[in-house]
Specification:
The protein is an all-alpha fold. The protein contains seven helices and no strands.
Length: about 190
Amino acid sequence: VDEGWLGAGVRCVLAGLLGIALILGGEWLARRSAATETEGGMPDYTPSALAAGGVAALFGATYAATSMYQLLPPLVGFIGMAAAGALGMLLSLRRGPLVAVVGLVGAFATPALVATEDPSLPGLFAYLLVVVAAAMMVVRATAWGWLGWSATAAGAMWVVVGTAAGKGLDLWAPALFVPAAAACFLFML
């Protein structure tokens, strides 16, 4: 890096490949551990840690390519970071709560990390409603109540930020998000 042999694009691709390798390594290790597991043994958290690290690496690679090096347009970067968050939520069904935390934090942090020329408050809250719904589906499948409350608290923080930053007619978006998220919370539970 110091000598200039690895440019920004190569570093971002390598970080993405590292993320994929960590996730695949976690899956391989989980299968291997399941085949050799003995009764009364301690649970193996290594596959979960590898999956969480892989999701974080994918998120970081996309963030770097978008915000640090401007290799990706903001919309593509936003979609990539949101996909990393969604992957974390999906992987949490197999690998546990650590991966869910990384996915949830990434999904809620994505809008704050991508700067656009023309931000859309309705678009932001539509995205956040999808994130809340995904979190509630994971809660329904796993009974991790803390995940639902965390998603609700993060959504509430975005409502405060969106209300403070919103102007004019765009304020309908956070106002509509609150009952929609509450309905999603109640419906999924």
